Amino acid sequence: IYTLGIDIGSTASKCVMLADGKEIVAKSLISVGAGTSGPQRAISEVLEQAGKSKDEMAFVLATGYGRNSLEEIADAQMSELSCHAKGATFLFPQVHTVVDIGGQDVKILQVENGVMTNFVMNDKCAAGTGRFLDVMARVLEVKVQDLGMLGAQSTKQVEISSTCTVFAESEVISQLSMGTDKRDIINGIHRSVASRVAGLAHRVGIRDQVVMTGGVAQNSGVVKALEEALGHEVHISPLTQYNGALGAALFAYQKYQKAQRA
Amino acid sequence: IYTLGIDIGSTASKCVMLADGKEIVAKSLISVGAGTSGPQRAISEVLEQAGKSKDEMAFVLATGYGRNSLEEIADAQMSELSCHAKGATFLFPQVHTVVDIGGQDVKILQVENGVMTNFVMNDKCAAGTGRFLDVMARVLEVKVQDLGMLGAQSTKQVEISSTCTVFAESEVISQLSMGTDKRDIINGIHRSVASRVAGLAHRVGIRDQVVMTGGVAQNSGVVKALEEALGHEVHISPLTQYNGALGAALFAYQKYQKAQRA
Ligand code: SF4
């Protein structure tokens, strides 16, 4: 039995195919999100990887910001909060806190036995989100995917005191003009993101295990800074980028089973 | 008796010379602020305009973000909140609310008989400040001082739904790519600033007369949008840009008188 989970975010589309609700058969990530061809391409890529057709899918479930655009294709939709809790529990059965930093938002979820029990979210302010890192990478003229590696080479503490993306950008520009090493600035940027996210996380409380998901979890510098800011170990996995889509595929399997019983 | 008030902001330095605590003899505005030659140039310009020397000044008082850098020159320092309340009351004796939008911050002051009785301030977030308008003007490739004139020519309502500077910038870019008229976008930007500032103002309450000060008061589009958002007439004067420096010069006169009596 094959099920498909699709997560349509603001900046990326992800798709996961599951066999029997427990084995990941294929996964895809297209770097464009809602309102583009991304969702369709993410699905096609997964089907192709698995050598399956859409008709062989027992249930297709969509989640994420742009999930409503898939009404033609998906059998059901669910909120990304539920799917993230579900996906994280599949990857880390002992998870109690999920920190999801996406391209444009930050969500902190409390999880109890795979179910989300409380959450806090910021989608109004770019500070602490992937967008903050995008802006800084552009000013520093480095690739956003190189930030983690570069920040790890920092040898001096540089403080970025503004949390606001706009004011922090000015601080970075002035640090650059003072000749400060980019790698030290990057390390300061990672700590700025971590302190912003930790402030949000303290509103719901943090309990072990803490799992970080979303695109920014690929940045090892932010993960490390977040461990320091939270005082908790932060677990990641190469699969956490697919966490929402994975949760959606798991729910798709549940829904398929329920439909069979009915 | 001549007194000097100097207001050193983050983006501009202003200086006002008063005769006998009631008549403005000279004023200057230099578009660079704290940490530059701006403060010194603002003072020199005023002295030159009036044909006076620094020694002829009975009392010199500094205010604003960068006031501590003038300890050598100024006889005293005072907070910009007190000076803004004082200056606004000189210009508008019936003032009860001062809305000051500067280059990097927004302050709302409640004023009773020339004295500040309550205030609320945002200096952590660029939204609603002059910086927000700078960012938008850059994206739109227009001069920030032309925004008021251009927005007044708008014929269609365009909504900028994000308050965050970073997310609003993306909205503006996408409006431009859709071919939306710049003047309509600018009008939407003015309403965004006004709604942000009104949200802040409601925290302290708004009582007539409402006076708007700071650099952004030069933008007639923001003034008009603020009148709509607050539901109150908003008073401005060409002198409100000098409001902090004017208040400082008024306090300088008071301090001079007090010193004479002692
Ligand atoms: S603090 Fe900065 S990044 Fe956050 S909402 Fe304000 S302008 Fe946007």
Automatic annotation (TrEMBL), chains A, B:
Which SUPFAM superfamilies does the annotation name?
Answer: Actin-like ATPase domain
Keywords associated with the record? Iron, Iron-sulfur, Metal-binding
Q: Which InterPro entries match?
A: ATPase_BadF, ATPase_NBD, CoA_E_activase_dom, Dehydratase_Activator_Redct
Which Gene3D superfamilies does the record cross-reference, listed alphabetically?
A: 3.30.420.40
Subunit comment: Homodimer.
* Start and end residues of each ATPase BadF/BadG/BcrA/BcrD type domain: 4-252
Q: What is this protein called?
A: 2-hydroxyglutaryl-CoA dehydratase
GO MF terms, alphabetically ordered = iron-sulfur cluster binding; metal ion binding
Q: Which organism is it from?
A: Flintibacter faecis
